Amino acid sequence: MPRTIIENIVIQKYKNETFFTFCKYTTIRFFEIVYIEKGNGTIKINGKTVPYSDDSIFVFIPDDIYILQAETATTVTAIKFLKSFFRNTSSQNTTLPVNDWFRKIEEILNSESHQLREMQFETASDKAHLVSLANMVAIEYSNKQSNDIFIIQNSLSVILHLIARNIQYMNADTIKEVKSSKIQQIINFIHANIYNSELLTTKNLAEEFHMADNYISEYFKKHTDVPLKKYILNYKLKLVETRLKYTDLQFSEIAIELGFTDSSHLNKTFQSYKGMTIGAYKASIS
User: Fold this and answer.
1) End-to-end alpha-carbon separation of the chain, Å?
2) Is 210 helix (H, G, I), strand (E, B) or coil?
3) Helix (H) / strand (E) containing 220
4) According to a count of CB atoms within 10 Å of the terminal CB, is the N or C end of the chain lower?
5) Which letter, b or e, does each residue of 107-146 get, where b requires 16 or more Cβ atoms within 10 Å of its Cβ?
6) Does 178 score more than 50 pLDDT?
7) Is the pLDDT confidence value at 174 over 80?
8) What fold, for 175-285?
């Protein structure tokens, strides 16, 4: 079984502690899940302080800086995907679904409402499943001599899927709006199926949301001020930015994955969107 998963992921378990050192991984951490099993205190996230309590789950993305300040003895499990895990994805062991995992968390990377990092869940069962899997992964990981890579790999994959499925509920203030707004449902559908162009045709979207073909585009623009096709393209280009920033994928690989004819087509489209070539953008963030 591949060892890449162990070399590029750090899992830490703290029991009844009042001082934590896991922030030392900030500069090399790409994505992190923090499960607070019990305890009370605050987390200072990018200068903003929010409370935590028993059974809280937080997620952190690149460049997030946080400090956990315990008021009572706190038990924490932290799962950190290091930046190296998502680099050179095309050369990773083919049995590791690295690119699939990246897709699962990119919604968080591109979310405009991720200032509040505490996860919210649509159902209690989703949260219970995630907690159970996080505990299982921590136990397997701690046993360095005989840890079962198969269990760790598949548990982490499900954890990321659960987070991706519930990301629309991250901001508690928007839960009601997300559930009731048809336009938000359409946007969520676009995001969830961005790699399947057939599902994002005007005809299919109209069928999915029980609208006439010639009305759904009008409806979408009316509520977002952006034409439907342009929104889909712009979201794809946001994902291109994410891949250029966080992975070492070849431009041709990004083009194929996101449905562009080739790297030349991608480059021309990206330049119209961003005002610079993909090569220039990649150089500017390196």
Assistant:
1) 32
2) coil
3) helix 213-224
4) C
5) bbbbeeebeebbbbbeeeebbebbbebbeebbbbbeeeee
6) no
7) no
8) Arc Repressor Mutant, subunit A (1.10.10)
- 222-280 pLDDT per residue, tens: 999 999 999 999 999 999 998 888 787 889 989 998 999 999 999 999 999 999 999 99
Domains of the chain by residue range: 4-171, 175-285
The reply to whether 175-285 shares the fold of 4-171 is no
| Sole residue written with tokens 């009008």 | 218
CA 30 to chain centre: 10
Q: Residue 15 corresponds to which tokens in the numbers above?
A: 């029991």
pTM for this one?
0.73
How far from chain centre, in Å, is Cα 26? 17
CATH topology of domain 4-171: Jelly Rolls (2.60.120)
Alpha-carbon distances, residue 102 vs 92, 198, 265 (angstroms)? 13, 22, 23
CA distance 165 to 154: 16
Structure tokens at 45: 């996230």
Give the C-alpha separation, 160 to 102, whole Å.
9
Highest average pLDDT, of 22-36, 111-125, 159-173, 205-219, comes from: 205-219
Length of the chain (residues): 286
Asked if residue 34 lies in contact with residue 100, where contact means CB atoms within 8 angstroms, the answer is no
At residue 265, what are phi and psi to the nearest 5 degrees? -60, -45
Does the pLDDT at position 61 exceed 90? no
- Residue among 17, 154, 34 at smallest CA distance from 73: 17
Buried b (16+ CB within 10 A) or exposed e, 162-178: bbbbbbbbbbeeeeeeb
pLDDT at 6: 66
Q: How far is CA 281 from CA 129, 178, 232, 276, in A?
A: 40, 33, 21, 6
